[in-house]
Amino acid sequence: MQSDQVIRALGALAQEHRLAAFRLLIQAGAEGIPAGVLAERIGVPPSSMSFHLAQLANAGLVSQRRESRSIIYAADYAAMGGLMAYLTENCCGGVPCDDPAACIPPSIMETAL
Amino acid sequence: MQSDQVIRALGALAQEHRLAAFRLLIQAGAEGIPAGVLAERIGVPPSSMSFHLAQLANAGLVSQRRESRSIIYAADYAAMGGLMAYLTENCCGGVPCDDPAACIPPSIMETAL
DNA sequence: CCAATAATTCAATAAAATTCGAAATATCGA
DNA sequence: TCGATATTTCGAATTTTATTGAATTATTGG
Predict the structure, then answer these.
(1) How far is residue B12's CA from residue B14's CA, in Å, rounded to a whole number?
(2) Does residue B95 sit in helix, strand or coil?
(3) Using an 8 Å Cβ cutoff, are A83 and A37 in contact?
(4) What is the pLDDT of residue A109?
(5) pLDDT value, residue B84
């Protein structure tokens, strides 16, 4: 994952309605949720929801599939994992570490999680 | 960590120069880096760097301390951990899980990390 | 105190993101 | 094919962000 795409992903998540939508999708799993249902649950008009979903899709954070008249969105867990990996990469001075909990000072980590 | 602060943190990181600065600080550790050095390394004028550092500080992602004439910035690992925790929270349908690798479908996780 | 250094704040501008009604597109059921 | 449903695209107004030179604040050494 390159910084360019990371910035788009972070930017996509850095918005109230999109963060809400993404979290609903994370919880919904592979089944996904139709655009209209997301709009209703979040409380924004369909055209606004469509705009936000396009941002998430462009960032690669969600996938979309048509099912009859509905377009169903689902979270892309791989992209999510990639984003997290990028953010913790080099978290202890350039030395790669698989376990952020061990990399980030434990005493500080306790209060964080 | 509440969604409001999460959005500010994500927004703070969703910008080329700020992401670059934060990564330098993550690698620098507790020692930190003076504002002027960051500006020079990233290639932006001091006033621009100051603006961006203020965003990061406002989001709680960095701390600042004065040392003689310099103001030295350092990454806040706790905030970083909190952000990651929020993003993976509920990642498998509302059931809390400490290990995102086990929560996010392993087969998908492989291609991501 | 004064000149030099380090950063920030201010202000004005430029660029990007958000909002949402109205119009357009796609799909289904009868 | 027609009408209803589900979404997206378009367009235009609004709001938020980003950029930087110039002025301001803080600190040090002489």
Answers:
(1) 6
(2) coil
(3) no
(4) 41
(5) 84
**pLDDT per residue as tens digits for the range B12-68:** 999 999 999 999 999 899 999 999 999 999 999 999 999 999 999 999 999 999 999
Residue from the list A6, A19, A77 with its beta carbon closest to the beta carbon of B7: A19
Estimate in Å the CA B52 to C1' C3 gap, whole number: 30
Task: State both tokens at B40.
Answer: 């020079």
For residue A42, what pLDDT is reported?
98
Q: In chain A, what is the straight-line distance between the N-terminal and C-terminal CA atoms, in Å? A: 26
Are B93 and A23 a contacting pair, CB within 8 Å? no
Instruction: Map out the domains of chain A with their CATH numbers.
Output: 3-112 (1.10.10.10)
Interaxial angle between packed helices B77-88 and B3-13, expressed in degrees from 0 to 180 and rounded to the nearest 10? 110
Assess B80–A contact: CB distance below 8 Å, yes or no.
yes
